[in-house]
Write a structure and sequence with these properties.
Blueprint: E1 2-7, H1 19-26, E2 31-36, E3 49-50, E4 60-61, H2 63-75, E5 87-97, H3 100-107, E6 111-115, H4 124-130, E7 135-140, H5 150-161, E8 194-195, E9 198-199, H6 209-227, H7 229-234, H8 242-250
Helix pairs in contact: 2-4, 3-5, 6-8
The chain binds adenine.
Adenine binds next to strand 5.
Length: 257
């Protein structure tokens, strides 16, 4: 996969050189380049913002540096299917909310471009113009406001990058993690089995794999109904077996049959 990030603070993206994503880049599984938007300005002051038409607080990012930066990125785009456009992700609190399903979807793409806005945002005409060159997706990390798109890009690139083939040593770890089956993950424990007078659940020492699987599934259902009842509401009834429904019933949740 190829990823390009355009930002006025390229240093903000330095953590993408570390850990699993940094290793994926070194191993050639992920080609990631960060571009400084100011390199695409043409005035002496390298201006990227101006006052908003119609008045109001703050500044708006000027369109031309964005067009030049995005053009320079598409000029070298080599998607194997010539009809396929790269995807342009515009982090914004006004976008669709990022989740694991979107991470899996983006992990299938050949070329992702992230446009980090700052101030009050990017001139809207840039997004309209970009539709000719990209599949444009404004994406929000959640219902809160950050100072710019960079932190959102760190989160999204990590969530997508770890799904690329070969990035995580044991791909089994992707199967049982939170959100992979619409539920939160079960609690985990390691040695010692007794620590500061707290014992791990005895079933985990039983060697009975079916019982352990049932215990873990029940813990997933319990945690999810306590912490994220919205996820329980969204579960497909077909994803639940009889034992799951019984557990949910004991938790006071009755899914419609
Ligand atoms: N930029 C500012 N706030 C944001 C958010 N919540 N998600 C993504 N990008 C943002």
């Amino acid at each position: 996969m190829r990823i390009d990030v355009v930002s006025i603070f390229p240093e903000y993206l330095a953590p993408l050189e570390l850990s699993l994503i940094g290793k994926a880049r070194q191993d050639g599984l992920l080609s990631l380049q960060v571009h400084d938007l100011r390199e695409f300005t043409t005035d002496r002051h390298r201006t990227v913002d101006d006052t908003p038409y119609g008045g109001g607080a703050g500044m708006v990012m000027k369109p031309e540096p964005w067009a030049l930066a995005l053009e320079s990125v598409t000029e070298t785009s080599t998607t194997s299917d010539s009809a396929a456009l790269p995807t342009l992700i515009v982090p914004s609190p006004a976008g669709e909310v990022f989740n694991q399903k979107l991470a899996y979807e983006l992990a299938e793409e050949e070329h992702l471009v992230f446009a980090c806005g700052r101030y009050e945002g990017i001139d809207e005409r840039v997004l309209e113009w970009s539709e000719e060159h990209f599949r444009v997706r404004p994406v929000s990390l959640g219902d809160y406001v950050l100072n710019g798109g960079e932190v959102a890009v760190l989160a999204m690139v990590e969530a997508v990058g770890r799904l690329l083939p070969g990035v995580i040593g044991n791909p089994d770890s992707l199967v049982e993690e939170s959100h992979s089956d619409g539920l939160l993950e079960y609690p985990v424990y390691t040695k010692p089995s007794s620590w500061r007078e707290r014992d791990i659940p005895a079933v985990l020492l039983s060697g009975n794999h079916a019982k352990i699987a049932r215990f873990r599934r029940d813990e997933q259902l319990r945690r999810t109904s306590e912490r994220r009842p919205d996820l329980i509401d969204r579960l497909e009834i077909g994803a639940l077996n009889k034992a799951d429904l019984e557990t949910l019933h004991s938790l006071g949740v009755d899914k419609d049959q």
